Amino acid sequence: MELKLKLTDYRTDVHNNWCPGCGDFGILSAIQQALFEMQLEPSKVAIISGIGCSAKTPHYVNAYGIHTLHGRAIPYATGIKLANPELEVIVAVGDGDGLGIGAGHFVHAGRRNVDFTVVMYNNEVYGLTKGQAAPTLGKGVKTKSLPKPNINLSVNPILLAFASGYTFIARGYSYEVKHLKDLIKQGIMHKGSAFIEVIQPCPTYNDIHTKEYWAGKGNIDPKTGKEVPRYYKLEETGYECIITNDTTEEEYLAKISKFIQKALESGNRVPIGVFYRDLRYETYEERLASRMPSYKYYPPAKQKIADIAGNPITKADKILEEFAV
Amino acid sequence: MDKPFGYSWLIGGAQGSGIERGASVFINAIASAGYYVFGKREYYSNIMGEHSYYYVRFDKKPVFSHIEKYNILAAYDAETVFRHSLESLPESAIIFNSMHRNVRLSEIPTIEKRLRNDISKRLKIEPNKLTLQMILEEAEKNGVKIFPIDYNAILNEIFRKTGESLSDLTRMNNVIAVASSLALLKLDFDSFVKGVIKTFGSKKNVVELNRMAGELAYQQVESKGYANEFKIKLEKLGNKNKRYIINGNQAVAIGKILAGCRFQTYYPITPATDESNFLEAHENVELSDYAAQAINEEKEHLQSQGSIVVMETEDEIAAITMATGAALSGARASTSTSGPGFSLMVEGLGWAGMNEVPVVVTLYQRGGPSTGMPTRNEQGDLRFAIHAGHGEFPRIVLAPGDIEEAIYDTIRAFNYAERYQLPVILMLDKYLANSVKSVENLDLTKNKIDRGFILSENDILKLKQEGKEYKRFELTDNGISPRIFVGTKGAVFWNTGDEHDELGHITEDPVIRDKMMEKRMNKLITAYNEIPFDVKLNHFQAIKPAITLVSWGSNKGVILDLIEILKGEGIEVEFIQLRLLNPFPSNELKQVLEGKRWVDIENNYSAQLAGLIKENTGLAPDYYIVKYNGRPISLDELYIAVESILKGEAPIRQVLRGGT
Ligand SMILES: Cc1ncc(C[n+]2csc(CCOP(=O)(O)OP(=O)(O)O)c2C)c(N)n1
Ligand SMILES: [Mg+2]
At residue A151, does pLDDT exceed 70? Predict the structure, then answer.
């Protein structure tokens, strides 16, 4: 098969100023590869980010790139997508961005199930402001950037995404680029809100959960005596959690309790892969179309509002009649 | 004060007991009889139980404002009588429930201590001894006529006839008060029925019950001979023009529909929400034949339909950012809020300014600061709207002064937002939002739609053929760069809240920074040069004005009414109403204001407009009339304030304190 678009078509020549060895490079690369493999026209794709190191991603991707405000990427993306559902929308957020200042938006996106993919760069720190504790940093952890150990509990992004209503929930690792690329592709193809948490080592500020840590440094398998990675791939264990309209109550409970177990796994065996798929709910776009039949064909961005002479074409006379005396 | 104020009617009762409905029956009855009306609603931030009231002023000629005095007080609870009976005009009437005569002031928990003490002091009777009868007698001393109505007799009669539950029937006390008022005014019963039908519409049973209640009230007024004791008699007038009764929230919503707004976001807040609710109720819109021709045939069944996505967001930050996102995709998009919500929106406003996104924010001012007085009026956000946000970025601030302007300026707001690629703040206030007015001669075809400098896919193709790159923030002389929508084929762009280059990538280069800053700010100069004089300000001229009144926003109505009253007394005054508040129309204002003796009139403490005028023109007012007690300026109090200035008896600053 001949591919029309090359991988380089998704790159820009903007100087990348992430720190050397930053986990963000892997995520950027996975996004570009996913777009490339899906042969998505750059002008059909919009990447929306908040603020942080992670938020610079759009500048490095040749697609519509909307670098917004700290925590607000999701509502911007919601507006962009609902006004023009033809777009492929990817939302790139940091852990502070998405679960600190933007936690409210993160939760509410789940209620809507807008057809976009939220990729959360989880480095457990506020990278761009020099390494303060992010909401995902565990209690008692003291990264080298912290004057004192963290005294807050951490939030579990996978469980929060589930509680919020995201219909596709996954976790990737930024040094498993191919695996991550596949997750992103699945997220894009999923109809509804997809959430992908990405474990992203921050070589500058997070000296606890480093690339080496994840690769298995000091994590000796007693059987083989060899270091083994601190993550494993869910799909390799045969795990799957898909909820459909045919899922019985009993099956549902069994699946969800399994899901929760997986979501809670931490320490030396952290799962990556697809945790959860829920195929029961229509997208927000479909909900809108069921109330407004024309939405499907003429979403807000595609509607004509004036004739050639600039006269409004929306009829207001009938509406005005409601007020006639 | 005996002035040609027309007629004034007041209905009061507990919040949730149907004040607004009752007022609607009255207004529609009077309007269908050919009268011009103005209606103002006052209510507490409360769902049920607190006192709420509605003033209606009406006349054979147009009326634009209220007075804080009535010809008829229509009360169906005791509190209304205690609160309002001493604000009467000469020879006015009080309609009340005859059962309430012995209710004592101390028995009404919803009257504030301050007010209870004032009433008690005024009558020199302790609250626990002061009965409704006593306050009525006090009112009678001022020439007021009292008309007890036996509400219960009416309800019992309907109960006997229909078997409806009595507790349900008490909901019609409001309509009994209305019908009694109309009977007292000797307006034909038909007009009353029209008011009921307009208000309750499709609910046949409700219409019938209210008609019955009205009929019995008319009979009671008749049998007691009340009508003869009351001087005012309303004839039915011939209606020449088609008229509408619209409030400010509805006017803005109509403007948005017409302007082609297709994406509205909101987080609930008084007094803004009604606008969004109205839009949601009308989310499927009809399009003219032009749209039908322009689209292809397979979609034929939808040819004449459009849709407005109305989103209730999780907060106001989401509201403005979501609307901005929709605008980036190419929809005309807006949000609507009041002070507390606008405070939250500020970061989004700055981002839209930085990225040159056309987004419209309707800002309905209410009493501030903080939660302030959520349901009361103020014009305290002028400075805030103009300056909101860190750093410097261009925005346009427009403030319509009445219902018609609210419709037209809303359309303008979207045009300016797109033409100059910036956020536009459309400022109203609670008074304008919640007041209704008779509107005629509306011309919905008068405003065109101007979407500004937008490149199509073909334009992009041409650019490419010429070997040029599309640049979202291309530097131009007038500051306006070519805009494309996210999703336009053949191109991409970047946005960022960081300073950026022509492509939209982050830069901290001092040279580019200067160019970008100047480009953005230049758009205000372009806008200033292009926006016509009569949008910037309204100048109501007089040949030999005794004084010049300067104001903005919803004060327009009361000032225009005052001008008419003064004219009747042989006094000419002129009025300058600022409508474009940013960029400030300095030259135009100077042209009409320089050398004049003038009065600044505002609904805020610090005379924010006067400050702006001084800053932009160097001109300072000779007098100030300000009001910040949460109540809009009434015609009667403004008359007194301006009269004292004309007589040379006024201090430089007068604070109006009217309203209950
Ligand atoms: C409203 C606001 N508050 C604070 C900041 C400062 N700030 C910039 S980046 C950042 C933290 C980003 O952390 P995260 O979202 O985890 O992204 P990362 O840099 O780690 O990728 C903060 C607090 C800001 N830009 N805006
Ligand atoms: Mg982070």
Answer: yes
Question: How many angstroms does the Cα of residue A156 sit away from the middle of ligand 2?
Answer: 14
Q: What is the pLDDT of residues B416-465, one digit of tens each?
A: 999 999 999 999 999 999 999 999 999 988 899 999 999 999 999 999 99
Backbone angles phi, psi at A310, to 5 degrees: 90, 10
Q: Which chain A residue shows the shortest CA-CA distance from B451? A: A310
In a domain, A161, yes or no: yes
pLDDT over 90 (residue B597): yes
Q: pTM of the prediction?
A: 0.97
Find the domain containing A192 and state its range: 7-288
Strand pairing category for B51-59 and B36-42: antiparallel
Taking an 8 Å cut-off on Cβ atoms, the answer to whether A68 and B497 are in contact is: yes
Confidence label for B632 from pLDDT (cuts 50, 70 and 90): very high
> B523, B357 in Cβ contact below 8 A?
no
Q: Is A45 exposed, middle or buried (0-12, 13-18, 19+ CB in 10 A)?
A: buried
Q: Could you tell me if B410 lies within 8 Å of chain A, comparing CB atoms?
A: no
Q: How many CB pairs under 8 A join A and B?
A: 261
A42–B283 C-beta distance less than 8 A = no
Three-state SS for chain A is: CCCCCCHHHHECCCCCCCCCCCCHHHHHHHHHHHHHHCCCCHHHEEEEECCCCHHHHHHHECCEEEECCCCCHHHHHHHHHHHCCCCEEEEEEEHHHHHHHCHHHHHHHHHHCCCCEEEEEECCEECCCCCEECCCCCCCCCCCCCCCCCCCCCCCHHHHHHHHCCCEEEEEECCCHHHHHHHHHHHHHCCCCEEEEEECCCCCCCCCCCHHHHHCCCCECCCCCCECCCEEEHHHHCCCCEECCCCCHHHHHHHHHHHHHHHHCCCCCEEEEEEEEECCCCCHHHHHHHHCHHHHCCCHHHCCCECCCCCECECCHHHHHCCEC
**Pocket-testing residue among A24, A129, A146, A155, ligand 1, by greatest number of atoms within 8 A of Cβ:** A129
A65 to chain B, minimum CA–CA distance in Å? 5
**Ligand 1-lining residues (CB < 6 angstroms):** A 51-54, 70, 94-97, 121, 123, 125-129, 134
Partners of B348 on chain A (C-beta within 8 Å) are 69, 72
Instruction: Give pLDDT tens digits for A25-60.
Output: 999 999 999 999 999 999 999 999 999 999 999 999
In a domain? residue A295? no
Which domains does chain B carry? 7-229 (3.40.920.10), 247-440 (3.40.50.970), 457-530 (no CATH), 535-655 (3.40.50.920)
Residues B12-28 as b or e (16 or more Cβ within 10 Å = b)? bbbbebbbbbbbbbbbb
Residue A97 CA, closest ligand 1 atom number: 15
Contact B248, A289 (CB under 8 A): no
Nearest CA in chain A to B493: A64
CATH label of the domain that carries residue A72: 3.40.50.970
Classify residue A324: in a domain, yes or no.
no
Give the Cα separation of A219 and A240 in Å (integer): 27
pLDDT of A308 reads: 87
Question: Is A252 within a domain?
Answer: yes
- Expressed in angstroms and rounded, the spacing between residue A127 Cα and the centre of ligand 1 is 7
Number of domains into which chain A is organized: 1
What pLDDT band is residue B301 in, cutting at 50, 70 and 90?
very low
Partner residue opposite B488 with nearest CB, options A43, A303, A307: A43
pLDDT tens figures, A61-84: 999 999 999 999 999 999 999 999
Among left, alpha and beta (phi > 0; psi -120 to 50; other), residue B499 is beta
Q: How confident is the model at residue B202 (pLDDT cuts 50, 70, 90)?
A: confident
